[in-house]
TrEMBL record:
One of its GO terms (cellular component) is nucleus. Belongs to the HIT family. Its EC number is 3.6.1.59. GO terms for biological process: deadenylation-dependent decapping of nuclear-transcribed mRNA; mRNA processing. The keyword Nucleus applies. It is found in: Nucleus. This is m7GpppX diphosphatase. Decapping scavenger enzyme that catalyzes the cleavage of a residual cap structure following the degradation of mRNAs by the 3'->5' exosome-mediated mRNA decay pathway.
Amino acid sequence: MASTQEAAGNKSSEVSDEPTPAKQPRLDQPTASQESTAMQQHDFKKFRLVEILDNSQRAKYVALLGKFDTTDGISSSSSSSSQDGKNGEDSKSSSTSAILLLEKEAFPVEQLQQSQLGLSLFDHRQTVETVMHNDIWHKYRLPLESSFCLAKATLVHPATDRLAAKYRRRPCHLVVESPEDYRKRTEPALKSAGAKHSLAWVGNLLDGSAEADRLVFDDPDPAVGFVLHADLKWDGRRIDDLYCLAVCRVDGLHSLRQLGAQHLPLLENLMDKGRKALRDRYGVPLSQQRVFLHYQPSFYHLHAHFTHVSADWPGQQAERAHLVTEIINNIRLMPDYYQKATLTFPVKEGEPLYDAYKDQLDLL
């Protein structure tokens, strides 16, 4: 894979010097590219469960590890084998693992409104189960019509053991990392474990070869530019659930620890153009946008998260999310703030960083 810096250079040569908002269709409607690849979809009837990695009652979310019965998991009706071959994915064995992430969709407002016209919300062929009754309070388990029972699905295929570990529920601990800890524990642990997942997909975002239909904004400047996409976690329907991801073009920046005064133009550009792009595209006021970095990040190429202030997405907890406005302010007060600061971050048992800090944690 070409480096992300090379990818950025290629992109810059194809566009004008002025960044412009991308023309993007509604995310809940199929695009031409989506329709053309519809025949390549995986055959989920052939998915076989191996392990339940995680199951969240609050988020109505489950992560499943499994395998496809077919040789590549792609429906036999596919007519695009040449494209698969170009990606080197046309001969995967039946033992190739896959991770399937399922999340219950929000109730569709348009169909709820149609129920006012007499269309039923409930499947009357099924039995209603009474759970509890106390005075005016009644609790039931109601079978809904199938249109209210859809789930968003994200498939990772093929999936490595490391990716399976990422989604597997395990006890979590908080690490308090001093600058010395960062040098002596964090950096060596990440390097020795090869902690970075493949970043080929990042290069694909930067050069425009993937997820072009989800592109919101593109700034080609190699020093302060970025691409802003609607995150795969967001279906593009409810603006209150907005979640977008900005991937910076500059290469060699991995995490919050590296940021200093020389990166203020980059951070300010993210805040200025990124938020204005979301305001123009989705009508979200600047004051209703939350922009933050994760520490530790889920992948080690500098990126920022844009969410609606009303959204309740995972990863927005105080111990992991750092608001970009506060990052900018801290650096203005002290240019090497993030090289001197003590930072807290969560780790799961079994991760490389957990092993690096295990002797510091209270494991009673």
